[in-house]
Amino acid sequence: METRHHVVIVGGGFGGLHAARALKRAPVRVTLIDRRNFHLFQPLLYQVATGGLSPADIASPLRGILSHQKNVHVVLGEVTGFDLPNHIVRLADHAIHFDSLIVATGVRHHYFGNTDWEHHAPGLKTIEDALAIRRRILYAFEAAERETDPALVQAWLTFVVVGGGPTGVEMAGAIGEIAHFTLRNNFRSIDPSQARIYLVEGLNQVLSNYRPKLAARAANDLQQMGIDVHLNTMVTDIQADHVVLKSGASTQEIQAKTIIWAAGVQASPLGKQLAGAADAEVDRLGRVLVEPDMSLPNYPHVFVIGDLANRPDVEGQPLPGVALVAIQQGKYVARLLIKRLNNESTSPPFRYINLGSMATIGRARAVADMGWLRLTGYWGWLAWLFVHLMRLVGYENRISVFVQWAYNYVTRNRSARLITGEGE
Ligand SMILES: Cc1cc2nc3c(=O)[nH]c(=O)nc-3n(C[C@H](O)[C@H](O)[C@H](O)COP(=O)(O)OP(=O)(O)OC[C@H]3O[C@@H](n4cnc5c(N)ncnc54)[C@H](O)[C@@H]3O)c2cc1C
Q1: Fewest C-beta atoms under 10 Å: which of 19, 52, 360, 400?
Q2: Is 374 part of a structural domain of the chain?
Q3: Interaxial angle between packed helices 377-391 and 395-411, expressed in degrees from 0 to 180 and rounded to the nearest 10
Q4: 126 with 237, same domain?
């Protein structure tokens, strides 16, 4: 009979995986449950969506990552609910008992109530999303090549990215590179560089969390790459062949066959379930309001971390939904559990150490803000490359991505330009 304290972790993303790893030497057994059998490096999803990398480059099987950590048992399955008073996690076909529970199931995209937009403007969160977007982008050039009506050719060659956060900026920049460089000389009837790419942002700057100067530099870089950046502009309708923009009193309809959503997220549905089971609160995005030690109110052995948690920073604002927050919270909760098992009573509240943020715009163009150091252009881009390469899980992936980036840099090629799956 196994007597070690049983920690159940739901979600093998950044938060869950780092919590599991930090429990490596702890006198506990860990069960890590995820509905996918891999850990996904979401910051590079846009590269899969634009043919620069293949899915396996940015995803690593959880069993492989944790194969040497003997106290972890990986379970492939979807968690459907909780019975907190009885310490039970429910999956579709069985239940697992826990002593401590860490829930890190992240977020998914959110269309602010316009659920019908999802069909026309896919978001980027999973490998499947990335492949669907890749298909749409590449198919648009193929359809334009076949089309004879000039208006339709232009509609196929028009791309609208909604949302000027890091994902939107990176997507728009990458589509610009494809149109201007990667596809050069690939077509006979159309000139891919005639593509129009719009980036639409509701606020008065792209990269809203960045200092205005860096954000302005990013917008300027995008414009130099031929991207039409619309600030202070709201999307009011999305259909299969057009999008309606509203800026102040004026509205504009853009005929576009490819629209990509990078504008909002909401918490995984497990957040509401968990909060309901614990009588806890969720915010308007469905993130669970947690105690300073990331636990649920009245359930000190149940923790919510990463994107699913709403934990305010020193100014009272929720911490951003970024990988570093999830990683630090995963490690923090693991340390806290170890302390409790050692009967060390007090534990300081979770504090986020902001090591900075960075976004790439295109080849040799990026912005990076590390607080004490701000980089743009080529140096920002090198910093971005280095940090993302080092954060990728698994040496094999790092080597493969490094080789492909070097090749892509020299040739401006994107070798994963495959139209796969079902589509138009
Ligand atoms: C396109 C994109 C680009 C990004 N770029 C950056 C960036 O450049 N820098 C940065 O810091 N952050 C970036 N982020 C944000 C970052 O990826 C997240 O903050 C981070 O992944 C959050 O980690 P998490 O552990 O909370 O959730 P996730 O990493 O999302 O992991 C959640 C896990 O839970 C699993 N899961 C969900 N529901 C269930 C269920 N019911 N049962 C079982 N398993 C379940 C999922 O399969 C997944 O493995 C980006 C995100 C996206 C989508």
Answers
A1: 400
A2: no
A3: 150
A4: yes
pLDDT at res. 266 = 94
Residue 107 backbone phi and psi in degrees, to 5: -130, 175
- pTM value is 0.95
Q: CA 238, CA 260: separation in Å to the nearest integer?
A: 10
- 59, 127 contact by CB (below 8 A): yes
Provide the pLDDT for residue 44.
96
Catalytic residue among 128, 170, 201, 344: 170
Q: Which residue among 36, 41, 42 has the greatest number of ligand 1 atoms within 8 angstroms of its CB, and so is best to mutate?
A: 42
Which of 9, 14, 125, 210 maximizes ligand 1 atoms within 8 Å of its Cβ, making it the mutation to test the pocket?
Answer: 14
pLDDT of residue 287: 96
Cβ contacts of 71 within 8 Å, gap of 6 or more: 4, 23, 24, 26, 28, 29, 30
Which of the listed residues 248, 263, 278 is the one where a domain comes to its end?
Answer: 263
Q: Which domain holds residue 203?
A: 117-263
Same domain assignment for residues 92 and 210: no
Is there a catalytic annotation at residue 145? no
pLDDT(424) > 60: no
Q: Which of 197-201, 237-241, 304-308, 310-314 has the lowest mean pLDDT?
A: 310-314
Domain's final residue, options 341, 373, 397: 341
Residue of the CA atom closest to atom 12 of ligand 1: 322
Tally of structural domains, the chain: 2
User: Closest ligand 1 atom, CA of 78?
Assistant: 42
CA distance 171 to 282: 30
How confident is the model at residue 423, as a pLDDT? 64
Taking residues 200-215, report their average pLDDT.
95
CB-side neighbour CA atoms (13 Å) of 45: 20
Please give the helix or strand (H or E) that residue 329 lies within, else none: helix 323-341
Residue 256 and residue 271 in one domain: no
Residue 222 lies in a domain: yes
141-185 pLDDT, tens digit per residue, is 999 999 999 999 999 999 999 999 999 999 999 999 999 999 999
Atom of ligand 1 nearest to the CA of 325: 19
Question: From ligand 1's centre to the CA of 326, what distance in Å?
Answer: 9
Q: How high is the mean pLDDT of the chain?
A: 94
Ligand 1 center to 224 CA (angstroms): 31
Neighbours of 38 (CB within 10 A): 20
User: Ligand 1: does its nearest atom lie under 6 Å from the Cβ of 307?
Assistant: yes
Q: Which one of 48, 290, 322 would you pick to mutate in the ligand 1 pocket, going by the greatest count of ligand atoms within 8 A of its CB? A: 322
